[in-house]
Amino acid sequence: MKNLFAIMGLATAVVLTSCGGGKSKEDEAARKKREADSLAALEQKRQDSIAAANQVVELKNVVETAQADPQFSTLVELLSNAGLVEKLSDANANFTVFAPTNDAFAKMDQKKLEALKTDLKKKQELTDLLTYHVAVGKFAAVDLKSRPELDMLDEKVLVLKVDGETLKVGNGTVTSADIQCANGVIHVVDAVLTPPVKKSKAKPAPTTNTITTTPAPATTINKTEGVGGKMTGNETQQVGGKMTGTQTQQVGGKAK
Question: What does each of the 256 residues of the chain score in pLDDT, given as a tens digit?
């Protein structure tokens, strides 16, 4: 009887151990799956961060930047018609572009605008108009506010003026400044800029010069002369300033 109870107890222990081992294996598998899922999620976040960082660093050139913004669709069309896309896409150059919006072009004489778009005989006129909106070099708004004029790509001068916090450029106003590009910067303007008739050169930015004038040294002249007697005198003269002096003259033995 005792042996029977012993056998039954051993069997029960084996069954319990077997059940416990199965549960332990299931828990281990679940744990490994959770770890794998967690690592996969972390890796995805890392990849997303890298992609976002690359997107910030990889700036577009001035043409690509304008193409990506719907408000510049008319400007982009005209740049293409004038054959300026390749020039302004040069990765080895820097440009400052004053970019009129579609609303700015809508203020133009629409018959003239349509002719510029479609008439091949107007291509040079279109090129001259567009290159008056481009300067060679990268000029931020703060740089432009310290300059009275700027040389443009068409060899004409754009007059700059600061009105409070507003930057006026020719007949237009900068409404949004410093759009960074891979080969320059874009400033949004609310008007199509009207180029002057004649070519010229811009006035240089003002500089502050301090001129110091040093007074000329004083010159002292000692003179002794006798007229019927003796004369002693002392005369002091300052060149480039006031003359001061004392003179004593003895005539016939008397001092005068």
Answer: 555 455 555 555 544 555 555 667 778 888 888 888 888 888 888 887 776 665 556 899 999 999 999 999 999 999 999 999 999 999 999 999 999 999 999 999 999 999 999 999 999 999 999 999 999 999 999 999 999 999 999 999 999 999 999 999 999 999 999 999 999 999 999 999 999 988 888 888 776 554 444 444 444 444 444 444 444 444 444 444 444 444 444 444 444 4
- Enumerate the domain spans of the chain: 62-189
* Cβ atoms of 72 and 188 closer than 8 Å: no
pTM, whole model, 2 decimals? 0.61
- For residue 185, the tally of other CB atoms under 10 A from its CB is 22
> In this structure, are strands 149-151 and 157-163 parallel, antiparallel, or unpaired?
antiparallel
For the chain, the C-alpha Rg in angstroms (whole number) is 44
Give the integer Cα–Cα distance in Å for 5 and 12: 11
What DSSP assignment string belongs to 131-172? Answer: HTTEEES---HHHHTT-SEEE-TTS-EEEEEEETTEEEETTE
Tell me the CATH number for domain 62-189.
2.30.180.10
Secondary element (H or E) of residue 240:
none
Give the Cα separation of 251 and 139 in Å (integer). Answer: 80
> Is the separation of the CB atoms in 60 and 68 below 8 Å?
yes
